[in-house]
Amino acid sequence: MAEHKNEAKKGLKKLLQDLNGYIKGKPKSTVITYFILRLLVIATLAVQMVHGNYYNAFMCIFTLVLFLLPAFVDRRLNIKLPSLLEIVILLFIFSAEILGEIQNFYGIFKSWDTMLHTINGFMMAAIGFALIDILNNDPHFHFTASPVFVAFVAFCFSMTIGVVWEFFEFGMDYFLKTDMQKDFIYNTISSVYTVVNPSGENSAVVIENVRTTLEGVVNGESVRFDYDGYLDIGIKDTMKDLIVNCLGAIIFSVLGIFYIKGRSKVAEKFMPTLKTEEDLARDRSEE
Fold this sequence. Notes:
Layout: H1 2-24, H2 28-50, H3 54-66, H4 69-75, E1 79-80, H5 83-102, H6 105-108, H7 112-136, H8 147-176, E2 184-186, E3 189-191, E4 205-207, E5 211-218, E6 221-228, E7 230-232, H9 235-260, E8 273-274, H10 277-286
Antiparallel strand pairs: 1-8, 2-7, 3-4, 5-6
């Protein structure tokens, strides 16, 4: 038991040292953003604890952990993150977890989720570009690829991350009965299902002005809902998320092509790079 406590203390001490060194080497804009967001999360955590909202309190703690990711990548993986990318990552985490989940921005602002998925597609394409660049600069793994091919791989990487996230949302909804894949109401549907198409032919029947009666049990009580349209369970939300993820990935992939050809510096502001020996020496001096 004592050994485990000592190991935990050493791990925490190392984490604090890494965080301290990470902060020392960052621009003021990044440091200010980092501390303001942390203070807001801690304040939200205190409010949620006072009101007994322990799930939201857990989300706050989870957000504080996620805020450590840039420092982990910087100090442990020796990957240099551009200041603008770090700020976007921190704001993205805060917007998704604190504003989106706890403050219900997903419900208040209908385009909130769409905006975040677009940004995610953009950022993941940037990381995909960076991975290829890092591999290309590794003496043990060197290859030459055309700008279009690199852009295509970065695009595919971004879309893969988007698909895996949708798998996660579906899993949460299916097994834990959450509603991460938000429901939508449709007034018109088209279907080849035999209930509405008795002929059995593979031709869609269009049904307009749909009305639905939904009966079930909520908290042990029978309920009945009558509404115009039918309840779509997550399909529209999933496809919308993937489409805007695709849009974000395409935007960065195009910027990346211009970056490789030396015609644009915009993509460079979002691309992580391996630290040089000079960067590593500076890190050691700041510890």
